[in-house]
Amino acid sequence: MTDDLRLTHLATTLPSTVPFVGPEAIERLSGTLFDARLGANESGFGPSPLAIKAMQDTAPDIWMYADPESYDLRNALASHHDIDPASIMVGEGIDGLLGLLVRLMVDEGDSVVTSAGAYPTFDYHVRGFGGTLHTVPYAGDSEDPARLIAKAKETDAKLIYIANPDNPMGTFHKAQEIERMIEAVPDGCLLILDEAYIELAPEDAAPAIAPNNPRVIRMRTFSKAYGMAGARVGYAVGHPDLVNAFNKVRNHFGMNRMSQAGALAALADEAYLGDVIARVQKSRDRIAAIALENRLCPIPSAANFVAIDCGQDGDFAKRVVTELGKRGVFVRMPFVAPQNRCIRVSCGPAAALTLFAVALPKALKSART
Amino acid sequence: MTDDLRLTHLATTLPSTVPFVGPEAIERLSGTLFDARLGANESGFGPSPLAIKAMQDTAPDIWMYADPESYDLRNALASHHDIDPASIMVGEGIDGLLGLLVRLMVDEGDSVVTSAGAYPTFDYHVRGFGGTLHTVPYAGDSEDPARLIAKAKETDAKLIYIANPDNPMGTFHKAQEIERMIEAVPDGCLLILDEAYIELAPEDAAPAIAPNNPRVIRMRTFSKAYGMAGARVGYAVGHPDLVNAFNKVRNHFGMNRMSQAGALAALADEAYLGDVIARVQKSRDRIAAIALENRLCPIPSAANFVAIDCGQDGDFAKRVVTELGKRGVFVRMPFVAPQNRCIRVSCGPAAALTLFAVALPKALKSART
Known about the structure:
The structure is a homodimer. By secondary structure, chain A is an alpha/beta fold. Chain A folds into 2 domains: 9-46 and 271-368, Aspartate Aminotransferase, domain 1, CATH 3.90.1150.10; 63-269, Type I PLP-dependent aspartate aminotransferase-like (Major domain) (Aspartate Aminotransferase, domain 2, 3-Layer(aba) Sandwich), CATH 3.40.640. Chain A is built from 13 helices and 12 strands. In chain A, helix 3 runs antiparallel to helix 10 (257-268), helix 4 packs parallel to helix 10 (257-268) and helix 12 crosses helix 13 (350-368). Chain A starts with 8 loop residues before the first helix and ends with a helix. At the A-B interface, helix 1, helix 2, helix 3, helix 5 and helix 9 of A face helix 1, helix 2, helix 3, helix 5 and helix 9 of B.
């Protein structure tokens, strides 16, 4: 770093690393393109055709900034969830909203609690604002609400993060358990309930949405079940005072006009969403079957991916990921032991899963030698 | 604010106000739609048809996250400017990049220098990270490089902001003057040269791009001349060390996949850009003529808008803006005296300017009574 730059002290301490290297970057490094893109929990089933049409119809209007209030989308979401629009903040994906929330809440040295090996981008934001991360281990393959709460009390945490269903393991907690966790959130602490995959989970996974409790904020997205990851549309649901606080710091004109229109159309197309949910279920079953055929253990998933226990350590799973990549199949794996004994395979169309089915035994063989 | 929220001390001090109320919000408040959208310096001439097509073609692929490195776009920009891609950071519009830059550089209490009445969104970011804004007045209708530099020395500023051409007045400095300013930037200070409108300015307004100086970072955008405001694509050009520092804090998967494709196509369509530049010039002339017909004084503009001196104070100009709005014509005005004696009218297609020409005399008459 040139001496002329006077970055903040905090910024000088941060690495220039990224939470995830993109598949395009891996392709450029390897010089070959992936044939099956099953690593980023994107939805290869794509968005609703009505959402595609809405975005295409909006493209000529892209000379206009988007409505900074996302009024139409917020109102449609409010109607969808039968809540007040004042409880909804639309933003540039959950990633963007998490960053803003951490900025609002976390001063340098403030405590934040998450699970070891949970969402790296959340950790990135916490470190990026100087927060101190305290982690608790998973209980088996699930996040552990009781230990998260206990750690929050112990550290006087301002934020607790939990994803339901969980990423990268795909497990979920039932609504009653999440409700008990919310009840137990200590005074002065806020629970972030990341529900990125909730549409794909069993119906008893989501507590009723009643955003009157200032101790919980829920995050939802059009990136997963709705198949619009590249459009960057997420939303937070919470107490109106908390939701309004985003207006202090957010990039008011940051939303994409096509994406707003696409999300609005996607939300309205419930038949398509139902179809995707059914296809994801079939896809999960197929990934599990492929794992079992290879004598690996699939972990039951409530999301649009399946974590497959490769039966050895993280080094072995990493070799499997690498060997799959060499064979044109992009998958990822958890970052932290013991979850990193797994590879994580996203659901997708049958053709992509067939490529995975063909590549996996070869990749395992290479990884074992 | 509910007592349960433990926002940071800084966040509690910030207002929940917005730098700009969007035209859609004004329409909702008034209950009528604008017939001529001439207030946000958007380009009513629209983006290149090739850019529209590229975005439409990409819409079905929106299930994939965008390449977080914006590799193709950065390389095309590097080629366009004949510089190294390592000197270019692509982000979600200049607004997004300014926020990240302030975050990297400004701790609470750090000094930042700008002109009184320059870009409010920059001020919003500085306040949002706790920086202390020091302003100098415009020199006539232009920003004042010498006073900006002097104020930076006086306050040990970390950042100086200047836009060339300027918004909201539309004036510009010649390249030599900007180069002299860059030379004079004090040690430990960084000049932000916001060139959002540079494609529309005379050729002698832009210094050669040679991003080897760690004391200046230039901001460019696809929102203005390229007509893609709603796509959120901007880029910073600077010293590679500074550019790389954005990787410490940016939302790596924040770019929209359609927008990346659209910007790439827009950049390649130089004929269309040339056509827009010609149309903007004609449009500026027409706005100036309309002003003169109404015995108002147009300020010569190097951007895609014209500031019109209404000859009285800010209260009067505000009434003119309001009266134009009632007649379906959306324009804005500068926020700070004495620039706020003006209204600011964006360039646009002939039909929109005709609506402005019809509405202006009536609006002036109402504003005067």
